[in-house]
Amino acid sequence: MYGEIDRLRADGPVVRVEMPGGLPAWVVLGYAEAVELLKVRNRAPWVSKDIAYWADFIAGLVPADWPLLMWAIKAGMFTADPPRHRDLRSWAAPAFTPRRIKRLAPVIEQIVADRLNTLAPAAQAAQVVDLRAEFCLPVPIEAIGALLGVPDDLAGMFRSGADALFDTSVTPEDAQARFFALLGAIETMVDRKIADPGVDLTSDMVKTLGTKDAYTREVLLETVRLTIVAGYETTGNLIDQAVFALSTHPEHRAAVLAGEISWDAVIDETLRWAGIAANLPLRFAVKDFELGGAQIHAGDAILVNYAGAGRDPAKFDRPEVFDPTRASREHLGFGHGTHYCLGAPLAILEAKTALPALFDRYPDLSLAEDVATIPANPGFITNGHARLPVHLSTTRA
C-alpha cells in the first residue's frame, strides 16, 4: 500500500486514479488537502456524499454490481450531508456518550479476558496463533454486538457481511450475496427488538422510530449496518497494527511496558502511521474547484487516502517511522469534520483495554514470520494484515 502511495505522491497531493471497473476518481493524499476537503461548508459546499452528484453514475457508467456501490447508495449517516446528517447522527449519538461508553467498559474487559483465555491452550502448546483472526477482530465485533444487542444466532452473518464490505478483492456476486445476507440479519434483529426491546442501541432507536421525519425503518437498518461496518474491521486493524508496530519496534515496546510511553500515545501514533481506514469511498464534487494543484470538476468522484495523509512528509518529520514519542499527536485516523467517526471513543476504549491486557498476559509475544512475508489484507479500503502470526509467551497463561 505505501509503495503505491509513494508512487502517487510523486505526482502531487491530489492525483487522478482508476478505481475497480475502470471508473476514474481523484485521491487526496496530502494531510492539509484532506483537512481542507473535509471542512464543512454549509453555504457553498465543494463536495457531497450524495451519489446524485456523480457524473459517471448519472450517465449510467456504474454497473449495478460494482463492488463499491454499496458504500454510496444506502440512505444513512455515512452518505448524508448536513443538515440531514445532524439528525441521523443525533439518533445514534446517545450510545457513544462518555457515560454510555463507561458502562460498556466492564463488558469489553470481559470480552478481552475471554478471548485471551481462548489463546491459552495454543500458548501452552507453543503453537503459532493468527492473532488477527483469534483476537484483533473478535474483540471489536463482539463489542459492537454487545452495543447493538446482536443475538448469538445472527453474529456469524454480521461478521461475514462486514468482511465482504471491506474486501474489494471478492467477486461482485460473493460481495452482493454476503451484503444482502447481512441486511437480512439486521432486519431480523430489528423485528425482534420491535417485538421485545432490550437495553441496547438498537432497542433505543426502535423506541423512537417515527418521532422525527428522518427516523424511519430504512434509516434505522442503515444506521445499524453502518455501526457494524465502521466499528468492526477498522478497530480490528487498530489493534492489529499496534501489535505489529510494537513487535517490530522493541525499544518502544520496552518503554510502553515500563510505563514510560502511554497507551494513548501508542494508539495515536498507530492511527497516524498505519491509517486504519486507508481509502474511504466516496465523495463527489458539487462544483469545479482546485485542490492541491489539481483541477477537480463538478461530478468527479473523490477518495480520501487517510493512510497517505498520515505519512505526508509536508506535515510530519520522518513520516514512515513509527514513533510514539512524537511531540505532535495529530492524525486523521477517525476522519475530520462533520463525518468524524461517532464511534471513536468506543474504538479507543477497546484498543486501550485489549492491548495492555494482551501484553500483560503474554509479555514475550513475538511475530512468528518474517515481516516481509506477512501480507496485507485484501482490498484498498482498510489497512491491516491478512494474518498476524505470533508466538505467545506462557509466562502468565
From TrEMBL:
Q: Does the keyword Metal-binding apply?
A: yes
Q: From which domain of life does this come?
A: Bacteria
Per its UniProt record, what CDD domains does this chain match? Answer: CYP107-like (cd11029)
Pfam families, per this entry? p450
Q: Name one molecular function that GO assigns to this entry.
A: heme binding
Q: Which Gene3D superfamilies match?
A: Cytochrome P450 (1.10.630.10)
Matches recorded under InterPro entries: Cyt_P450, Cyt_P450_B, Cyt_P450_CS, Cyt_P450_sf
Keywords associated with the record: Heme, Iron, Metal-binding, Monooxygenase, Oxidoreductase
Give the family this protein belongs to, as stated in its UniProt record.
Answer: Belongs to the cytochrome P450 family.
Q: Tell me the protein's name.
A: Cytochrome P450
What organism is this sequence from? Promicromonospora sukumoe
